[in-house]
Design brief:
mainly beta, 13% helix, 39% strand
Length: 173
């Protein structure tokens, strides 16, 4: 039986793009939404809170205004360690704490999509939802079983409602 986690980052002030990405991940079966920082707008946290699935969001370098709302949302500081089902995670915004001390390391900040398996640890940066550096929104669905990680990157060109998929599988050690 596989488990699915939706991963987003760098939504900045693009509330509509964030909601479209989150909705797609939920439609694809995400059981948890992880936001890797630079949330910027409280409306994104409010939307996450209305969902019927758990979420976690880490502060990014542009989220200082959100600290006043810390107790109202599932906001964490970096690095944050948590478990979901049978997997350990380390969540951060800045890719500074990249030591392989969890099953999955999630970061954002660079706006660059990147997934690597290094010595049994999966490193995931989902890229940007906001489409600031690239003309597309990017979100990631992480599906995992006891034997493998399946990464599906979903991208959507701005002003286009069609999401494209690219999938890659990594063997778990």
């Amino acid at each position: 039986m596989s488990k699915k986690i939706g991963i987003i980052s760098d939504t900045h002030s693009k509330i509509g793009r964030a909601i479209k990405g989150i909705d797609l991940l939920i439609k694809e079966g995400a059981e948890l939404i992880v936001h890797a920082g630079d949330i910027v707008k409280i409306e994104i946290l409010e939307y996450l809170k209305t969902l019927n699935i758990p979420y976690i969001a880490v502060y990014g370098n542009n989220d200082k205004k959100l600290t006043q709302h810390h107790n109202n949302f599932n906001l964490v500081s970096e690095p944050n360690y948590f478990n979901f089902k049978d997997l350990s995670f380390k969540l951060m915004h800045h890719p500074l704490y990249l030591s392989p001390d969890a099953d999955v390391i999630i970061s954002g900040h660079t706006h660059d999509y990147k997934v690597e398996m290094i010595n049994g640890t999966l490193f995931v940066n989902p890229g940007e939802v906001c489409a600031r550096d690239y003309p597309l929104s990017s979100v990631v669905l992480l599906e995992y079983t006891k034997k493998e990680f399946i990464i599906t990157r979903h991208t959507r060109m701005i002003k286009n409602n069609n999401w494209l998929k690219e999938k890659k599988t990594y063997k778990r050690q």
